[in-house]
Amino acid sequence: MTIYLVNLALLVMWAMLLMRSDASYKRGWFVTFATIQWIVLSGFRHITVGDDTAQYKALFLGTEGLPVSALTNDFFKIVFTESEDPGYYLFQRLVQFVITDYQVYLVLIALIFMIPLGYFIYKYSTEPLISFLLFSVLFYEFFAVTGLRQTVATALVVLIGYHFIRAKRIVAFLAILFVALTIHKSALIFLPFYFLADKRLTKPYILGMLGVIAALFAFRGPFFNLLVSLSGYDTYSALDGAGAINFSVMLMTVLLVALWRRDEILQNNPQAIHYFNALFLAACFLPLTFINPSMMRLVQYFTLFLLLMIPEIIKTFERRERVVVYYAAVTLLLLLFLQDAPVYTFFWQ
């Protein structure tokens, strides 16, 4: 827990020091420092940190020495007809021609995710400190210390693919989406966002989406069975007591507050229409988490846009109010982290 607190304290310290400067490059320096900190925490973690770190080490050792042909045979057949994700194993084997140490491999995975995340925040967030604090509280446990396959897939389809969505480069987006889905098939869920990202927030559309969210919650069982059938991940089943209640309340609250202040948000940043539609899609898949917590994997592709939406909401307040809301948000995020901060150790400890 201590090292996480140091990480958060450093984030706040960099922000405060750089805010005293009028230099135009201060934003870039802050994002650089924050990104490096998370690369260190993610890549230098002990094998006991994260639910899947040890399992992925076994997978890493299991592919060592395998001929590449063993991983390319029937590659496309496996992608389209089976539940396996052959792209990840092929990627891992190719990396092993250069990297044979699992700890160094973890650093590589951290670079693959954290550098695009840093650029994503640098390019689009109006408040990088808030964005990194949000990541540190809400998403680090999933993307920084847990599943490697979906971490890589998300870096490709969301953090890189979003640039292609903004540029309306569908061929490039579909290409990177295909690569991502060979690494983790759940990446396919991000495809509808390309076509919905610019959907205007008319009243019929807003009411319609809220109605769809309510309907999907009411019929979450059949919806869950349909998605499991289509995805091929037959290992997922309904679990009693499932439900990310706190996260669900937070997501819906942010979405509703954003809709309340949508005119101000879109006046400040017309491209924020993408964040609204991403959160609508996140809310559509949220009911599935009440069937099986693993369905949060689908929600996470869209909820990364909370890192951009919450700063946009803060920006809509008047200058005096904004300072209060800004520091209240920072304080709340720090308190939320303290409430449920996990144990962390470096690999040498």
User: Can you give the mean pLDDT?
Assistant: 87
Give, in order, the helices and strands: HHHHHHHHHHHHHHHHHHH
What is the straight-line distance between the termini? 14 Å
Structural class: mainly alpha
How are the SSEs ordered, and which strands pair?
Blueprint (H helix, E strand, L loop, with lengths): L1 H18 L6 H18 L9 H11 L4 H5 L2 H7 L4 H10 L6 H23 L3 H16 L4 H19 L3 H14 L7 H6 L6 H16 L1 H12 L13 H16 L1 H7 L4 H13 L10 H8 L2 H10 L3 H21 L10
Helix pairs in contact: 1-2, 1-8, 2-7, 6-10, 7-9, 8-18, 8-19, 9-10, 12-16, 14-16, 14-18, 16-17
InterPro entries: EpsG-like
Protein name: EpsG family protein
Pfam family, one: EpsG
Textual characterization of the structure:
It is built from 19 helices and no strands. The protein is mostly helical and 349 residues long. It has a domain at 198-316. α2 (26-43) packs antiparallel against α7, α12 runs parallel beside α16 and α14 (245-260) runs antiparallel to α16 (273-285). The longest helix has 23 residues, at 102-124. It is globular, with a radius of gyration of 20 Å.
